[in-house]
Amino acid sequence: MSNADFFQRAYSENGPKVISGFSRPVYHNLMGVLYGHQFDKMGFGGMIRHTEAGMLYEWASEVIQGGTIVEIGCYGGLSTSYLVKGTESRDVRICSIDPFNSDLDTQAERTDGCVELEDKPTKELVAQRMAKLGAGDRVTLIEGFSQEAVKDWKDEIDFLWIDGNHDQAYLDFTDWSPYLKVGGRIGFHDSHPRYGYPQVAEDVKKALESSEHWGQLEHVKSIISAIKLA
Ligand SMILES: C[S@@+](CC[C@H](N)C(=O)[O-])C[C@H]1O[C@@H](n2cnc3c(N)ncnc32)[C@H](O)[C@@H]1O
Is pLDDT above 90 for 13? Predict the structure, then answer.
């Protein structure tokens, strides 16, 4: 199936929820049941569903020893915690970027309205949560905007997880995907028109339209994920 066909089916009203592979919805649900309930979603103020959390855990577990995961949009660290769990006891570095509660004027100017700017989780709070998981030394929290952070970025990425400003998913893609290794995974949250944001869905369709460059497309609730082919 071409990537264009994938999106047509994934985004259709009555289309199957998941396209890639035999019984993938069953597999996604199983991962959700097994691994997607490890953290208190409400307590974290988190925004991922249990099935999505289970698959984040699963995808993180596929990252090789010495690999790097980049997360854009950390908020209170719920998704970050699943990335940590999926890579537990392995030397995998996780860099998570979010302005947290800094520079609120710029955040107000650029906001997509998704999160309240008052009372945003602080970098210190998320750092404490990571330390409690025993991952304080593996997780680097970058306090700032992805567009600025990329200017200092140099390393190859094994798994790029995009869940930042919903008006800027395509910009995050063009800024960061050049650092993704061939064979590495990209995942976009909120990228389904029914389960996420129509703007993100459009951006992701545009980003991953080339079947030459992106394969193994997968749809998990509001997530679209793919493997970089070239
Ligand atoms: C939907 S929340 C992330 C939720 C988190 N991934 C989770 O599952 O718990 C989006 C976060 O991205 C942050 N954000 C917005 N623009 C950003 C940018 N340019 N770079 C990094 N983070 C950004 C927001 O402030 C917010 O904290």
Answer: no
- Count structural domains, the chain: 1
Q: Are 36 and 50 in contact (CB under 8 A)?
A: yes
pTM, to two decimals: 0.96
Does the pLDDT of residue 22 top 50, yes or no?
no
Amino acid at 123: K
Its domain, for residue 85, covers 3-228
Helix (H) or strand (E) holding 158: strand 157-162
Mean pLDDT of 123-134: 98
Q: Is the pLDDT of residue 129 over 50?
A: yes
pLDDT higher than 70, residue 179: yes
How many C-beta neighbours within 10 Å does residue 202 have?
Answer: 16
State the distance from the centre of ligand 1 to the C-alpha of 11, rounded, in angstroms.
24
The CATH number covering residue 83 comes to 3.40.50.150
Q: How far is the CA of 14 from the centre of ligand 1 (A)?
A: 30
The answer to whether the beta carbons of residues 71 and 96 sit under 8 Å apart is yes
| 3-class state of residue 99 by DSSP | coil
Residue 99 Cβ inside 6 Å of ligand 1? The answer reads yes
Find the 114 Cα to ligand 1 centroid distance in Å.
9
